[in-house]
Specification:
GO terms for molecular function: structural constituent of ribosome. With 129 residues, this protein is of the alpha+beta class. Helix content is 20%, strand content 26%. Strands 4-3-2-1-5 form a 5-stranded antiparallel beta sheet, with no helix packed on it. The chain starts with 27 loop residues before the first helix and ends in a 7-residue tail after the last helix.
């Protein structure tokens, strides 16, 4: 229970690198392309201090609204009291990754389309989830 409240206070394990992942970052991190509207997960990388988001945003999911050569702008909904405030955060590409929630959604849409097609062929009710 320390008394200091610095910007990286209480992040000993949050920003630490996993076993055998210490050192420089893989090149594939920089080669990923991000477009406006992409859904991304924010995961701060302790190896790079520049462009690191505040610890509050670690583990959050947001939507990209701006793309520059080394960073992206992300919109995150932050709960304050009983309302949500739209926060815009600029984060370097080392600290984000594409979210899998979009992949699950697209997979579900394809499955529903197949089910609807089969239901039309049989003449029965449409089953979708």
């Amino acid at each position: 229970m320390p008394n200091s409240f610095g910007i990286r206070a209480r992040t000993r394990y949050m920003f630490s690198r996993k076993f055998r992942e210490h050192g420089s970052i893989r090149l594939s991190t920089y080669l990923k392309t991000y477009k406006v509207g992409d859904i991304v997960d924010i995961k701060a990388n302790g190896a790079v201090q520049k462009g690191m988001p505040h610890k509050f945003y670690h583990g959050r999911t947001g939507i990209i609204y701006n793309v520059t050569k080394s960073a992206v702008g992300v919109i995150i909904n932050k709960r304050v009291g009983n309302r949500f405030i739209e926060k815009r955060v600029n984060i370097r590409v080392e600290h984000i990754k594409h979210s899998k929630c979009r992949d699950d959604f697209l997979r579900r849409v394809k499955e529903n389309a197949i089910r609807k097609k089969e239901a039309r062929a049989k003449g029965g009710r449409k089953i979708s989830r």
